[in-house]
Structures are given as structure tokens and as C-alpha cells.
Design brief:
Layout: E1 2-3, H1 10-23, E2 28-32, H2 47-57, E3 64-66, H3 69-72, H4 79-89, E4 96-100, H5 101-104, H6 113-119, E5 121-125, H7 140-143, E6 146-148, H8 158-166, H9 177-186
Parallel strand pairs: 1-2, 2-3, 4-5, 5-6
The chain binds NADP nicotinamide-adenine-dinucleotide phosphate.
């Protein structure tokens, strides 16, 4: 389960649980992105803060695990490198890379898109308002490796949560209470203005 998780919220957690059920997965390993190659905005939580929030968020589910592979790796966090590392750690396992459809629409610009599809099945989570039709425009070799998760993600967005925190609006019930308390205690997202990701 790859994502910047800035911050992780119930949409991600619900999607991971649905994907696990639908795909019959033994475990879901959350991989917070270390240094995202594709985005930069003011006020992004650090890799270690995003790792900590993800760790807090998954505590209640025995099937959920977390990996430091991207937060510990120097340089940009490329999904291909993460999958190669996972293949080395779990040589016998069938691998799935779970993420949001918006992210996958850009996969043609990532490092080694065709190698990625040879290493895993891409499990795509959709959300109301997402451009699912865009998947049809991906090259056939990539499209054949994509599996849509049937249940749409809850309509919760990390961008919206950051904006709400910066405006001092409540975020209770959008994300686990331990994550909300962490954001509060560490003063995350308090100084942002109208950013988007
Ligand atoms: P993003 O572009 O910030 O997210 C695109 C959309 O997908 C957002 O609406 C986001 O919702 C949603 N999303 C993100 N992760 C999700 C997840 N695990 N499940 C369901 N929805 C999710 O994407 P990102 O989070 O930075 O990156 C997604 C993954 O793609 C990461 O693993 C990243 O490393 C990988 N990636 C790799 C490369 C590369 O190798 N060159 C380039 C880009 C992305 P929220 O905003 O609510 O999270």
C-alpha cells in the first residue's frame, strides 16, 4: 500500500481493508513514501512524521504492517526500487501494489513502469470524482496488470484534512484519533496557505 500518507486517514485504511478482502491478501504492508519524486508543497510533514502517523493508524489491525523501505532509502522514492526490495524480502509471495487511481494515471512517467508491472499486480482504489476512464488510455501492457478494487474509497482526502487543520477546523472522525492527536501535538499543517497536491 503505497502513499505519501500526509496524513493517513480512514479512506486509506478502509481501502486497504477492502483490497485485502477482495484480493485475499495475507497482509497489507503500508509503505509511506520517503522523498516523493512527483510532488513538493509547503508544509509537507517529514518522512519520519508520516511514518509515525502511519504506524499509529495501523495499530488496531493485525493484518496491517508498515515498512521503512522508502523512508530509510536515500534519494527519491521510486516504486520500482520498493518492489525490487519487496521481491527480495518475500521471494515466494505474490505481490500487489495498492494505490489511488489518480497516482496510477501517471505511471507512464515513473521509473520502469513495465518492470513494475512484471513484479506485481497493480491494485487501484477509486474514489468519487476520480478519472477512472483515464486507465483505458494506459498502454495495454500496463492496463493488463491493473485490477480495480470494487468498493470505492471513502470520500476523504489528505489535502482537505491539511487544509482543515490549517484553518483550525475539526478533523475528528476523518482519521484515527491517535493521528489527530499527533498532528495537534507536533503542530503539523498549521501554517499552510491554499496548497494543493
Ligand atoms: P498522490 O499523487 O498524492 O495521490 C493521488 C491520489 O491517490 C490522491 O487523491 C490520494 O489521496 C490517493 N491515494 C494515494 N495513496 C493512496 C492509497 N494508498 N490508497 C488510496 N488512495 C490513495 O499519490 P501519492 O500518495 O504521492 O503516491 C501514491 C503512490 O505512488 C506512492 O506509493 C508513491 O511512491 C507512488 N509513486 C511513485 C512514483 C515513481 O516511482 N516515480 C511517482 C509517483 C507516485 P490522498 O491525497 O487522500 O492520499
Amino acid at each position: 500500500m503505497g502513499g505519501t500518507f500526509d496524513p493517513i486517514h480512514y479512506g486509506h485504511l478502509f481501502a486497504a481493508a477492502e483490497a485485502a478482502d477482495e484480493l485475499g491478501l495475507d497482509n497489507v504492508i503500508f509503505v509511506p513514501t520517503g522523498t516523493p519524486p512527483h510532488k513538493k508543497y509547503d508544509g509537507m510533514a517529514s518522512a519520519s512524521e508520516r511514518y509515525d502517523m502511519t504506524l499509529l493508524a495501523i495499530a488496531e489491525n493485525d493484518r496491517f504492517e508498515i515498512s521503512r523501505t522508502e523512508t530509510d532509502r536515500a534519494g527519491m522514492s521510486y516504486t520500482l526500487d520498493t518492489l525490487l526490495s519487496m521481491r527480495g524480502l518475500y521471494p515466494q509471495s505474490e505481490l500487489f501494489f495498492i494505490t489511488g487511481v489518480d497516482a496510477i494515471l501517471d505511471i507512464g512517467k515513473w521509473k520502469g513502469p513495465f518492470e513494475i508491472t512484471s513484479l506485481c499486480t497493480i491494485a487501484v482504489v477509486t474514489r468519487p470524482g476520480y478519472d477512472n476512464d483515464g486507465l483505458g488510455r494506459l498502454p495495454g501492457e500496463i492496463r493488463r496488470s491493473v485490477r480495480m478494487i470494487g468498493t470505492p474509497m471513502l470520500d476523504i482526502s489528505a489535502t482537505d484534512i491539511r487544509r482543515r487543520v490549517s484553518l483550525r477546523h475539526g478533523v475528528r472522525y476523518l482519521l484515527p484519533e491517535a493521528v489527530r492527536a499527533y498532528i495537534d501535538k507536533n503542530g503539523l499543517y498549521s501554517k499552510m496557505d491554499g496548497e494543493s497536491s
